[in-house]
TrEMBL record:
<keyword id="KW-1133">Transmembrane helix</keyword>
<feature type="binding site" description="axial binding residue">
    <location>
        <position position="279"/>
    </location>
    <ligand>
        <name>heme</name>
    </ligand>
</feature>
<dbReference type="InterPro" id="IPR001128">
    <property type="entry name" value="Cyt_P450"/>
</dbReference>
<dbReference type="InterPro" id="IPR002403">
    <property type="entry name" value="Cyt_P450_E_grp-IV"/>
</dbReference>
<dbReference type="GO" id="GO:0005506">
    <property type="term" value="F:iron ion binding"/>
</dbReference>
<feature type="transmembrane region" description="Helical">
    <location>
        <begin position="123"/>
        <end position="146"/>
    </location>
</feature>
<keyword id="KW-0479">Metal-binding</keyword>
<keyword id="KW-0408">Iron</keyword>
<protein>
    <recommendedName>
        <fullName>Cytochrome P450</fullName>
    </recommendedName>
</protein>
<keyword id="KW-0812">Transmembrane</keyword>
<dbReference type="InterPro" id="IPR036396">
    <property type="entry name" value="Cyt_P450_sf"/>
</dbReference>
<dbReference type="Pfam" id="PF00067">
    <property type="entry name" value="p450"/>
</dbReference>
<dbReference type="GO" id="GO:0004497">
    <property type="term" value="F:monooxygenase activity"/>
</dbReference>
<dbReference type="GO" id="GO:0016125">
    <property type="term" value="P:sterol metabolic process"/>
</dbReference>
<dbReference type="GO" id="GO:0020037">
    <property type="term" value="F:heme binding"/>
</dbReference>
<keyword id="KW-0472">Membrane</keyword>
<dbReference type="GO" id="GO:0016705">
    <property type="term" value="F:oxidoreductase activity, acting on paired donors, with incorporation or reduction of molecular oxygen"/>
</dbReference>
Length: 318
C-alpha cells in the first residue's frame, strides 16, 4: 500500500480510501483463506469492489438514512434485495477462494467435516463481513486518530516501535504485544469509534441487569440492545471520556480498564467461547491494527493526514 501511495505524494494529497481497501482485502484473504489476490489479475484489481457491492446490498436495508423520508423506509428499508444484483461479484469471489484457498478449504472439510461449498461460503462471510467490512470502517478511524497530533503522539509511537522492533526481531503478532503505547492507541480508537456500535442479544433466562445506580429486571426471551458508543463514554469508568487519550490503556491502571472496554460483544479482557457472543476475531483485529501502526512508524518518522488523504510523509534521516 505504501509503495503505491508514496510516489504520488509529490503531486499533492493522496486519498487513502481505495489503497487501504485493497490492502485490507489482500491481507485478509491471505490470513484467513490463504488466497493471494496477486495470482488473479481481476481479483487483485477489483476484488475489494466486488466485496463492497456484495456487502452493500445486504447492509443498505439496515443503514439509517434521514433524508427523503418516508420514501427511504418504503423503498430501501422494507425488503431484502435480490441476490442477482451481486451474483456476478459473489461468484467471482467464490471462484477465487475455490482456486487459491485449497489448503484452508481442505482443513474445513477434514477438521470440521463441512462440505466444500459450505467451507467456501463460510470463508467468504468471515472474509467479507467480519474482516474486510469491519477493518474498512476501523482503519479509517485509526488514521483519523492520527490526524490531530496535539500531544506529539507520533514521536512517542515511533520511539516505542523502533525500540521494540529494532533489536532484530522485526514485526509480528508477537512483537507488537510488547508495544504498550501502540496497543493503547488501538484500544482508544476502538473505545471512541467501535466499528459495530450496536449489539443485540435475547435473554436466555430471567436476570437482573445492574448499572451504577439502578437494577433492571430482564425476562427470558426479551431482546436487548447495547450501544457501545455511549457505554464507552461512561465518566464513572473513564476519566475525561470524550477526549482521545492515546496512553489511556497503558500501565497497571490501563490494563484494568480493559475489563470495561467493550468494542465487540464482550470486554477486551474476555475470551470468545461457544457460550458467549464475543467477537471470535477480537485479538486478530487488535493485533492487525497494532501491526499496521507499527509498520507505519518503522517506515516513516511521521505522516501528515488531512481528511481522508495523506498529504505528506517524513522518512527517517540517513
Amino acid at each position: 500500500m505504501w509503495d503505491t501511495i508514496e510516489p504520488q505524494l509529490s503531486s499533492g494529497p493522496v486519498s487513502y480510501l481505495i489503497p487501504i481497501q485493497k490492502f485490507i482485502f489482500a491481507f485478509s484473504s491471505l490470513c484467513i483463506a490463504g488466497a493471494d489476490p496477486a495470482n488473479s489479475p481481476d481479483i487483485s484489481e477489483n476484488g475489494y469492489m466486488r466485496m463492497d457491492r456484495w456487502l452493500a446490498v445486504q447492509l443498505l436495508p439496515s443503514i439509517p438514512i434521514n433524508a427523503f423520508q418516508p420514501l427511504v423506509e418504503i423503498f430501501l428499508h422494507s425488503f431484502a434485495y435480490p441476490f442477482f444484483l451481486v451474483s456476478g461479484d459473489y461468484n467471482k469471489l467464490y471462484e477465487f477462494i475455490e482456486t487459491e484457498g485449497k489448503e484452508v478449504i481442505s482443513r474445513g472439510q477434514t477438521e470440521f467435516k463441512l462440505g466444500k461449498e459450505d467451507v467456501i461460503h463460510n470463508l467468504l462471510f468471515i472474509l467479507g463481513f467480519n474482516a474486510f467490512g469491519g477493518f474498512s470502517i476501523f482503519f479509517l478511524s485509526l488514521l483519523a486518530s492520527l490526524e490531530s497530533d496535539t500531544t506529539g503522539i507520533q514521536e512517542k509511537l515511533r520511539k516505542e516501535v523502533r525500540e521494540k522492533a529494532g533489536s532484530g526481531i522485526g514485526l509480528s503478532f508477537s512483537s507488537v504485544q510488547e508495544m504498550d503505547l501502540v496497543q493503547s492507541f488501538v484500544y482508544e480508537t476502538l473505545r471512541l469509534n467501535p466499528p459495530v456500535p450496536l449489539q443485540y442479544g435475547r435473554a436466555r433466562k430471567d436476570f437482573d441487569l445492574s448499572s451504577h445506580d439502578a437494577v433492571f429486571k430482564v425476562k427470558k426471551g426479551e431482546l436487548l440492545c447495547g450501544f457501545q458508543a455511549l457505554a464507552m463514554k461512561d465518566p464513572k469508568v473513564f476519566d475525561d471520556p470524550e477526549t482521545f487519550v492515546p496512553d489511556r490503556f497503558t500501565g497497571e491502571k490501563g490494563k484494568e480498564l480493559l475489563d470495561y472496554l467493550y468494542w465487540s460483544n464482550g470486554p477486551q479482557s474476555g475470551m470468545p467461547s461457544v457460550s458467549n457472543k464475543q467477537c471470535a476475531g477480537k485479538d486478530f483485529v487488535t493485533l492487525t491494527a497494532s501491526l499496521f501502526l507499527a509498520h507505519l512508524y518503522l517506515r516513516y518518522d511521521s505522516v501528515t493526514i488531512a481528511g481522508a488523504s495523506f498529504s505528506g510523509v517524513e522518512k527517517p534521516k540517513p
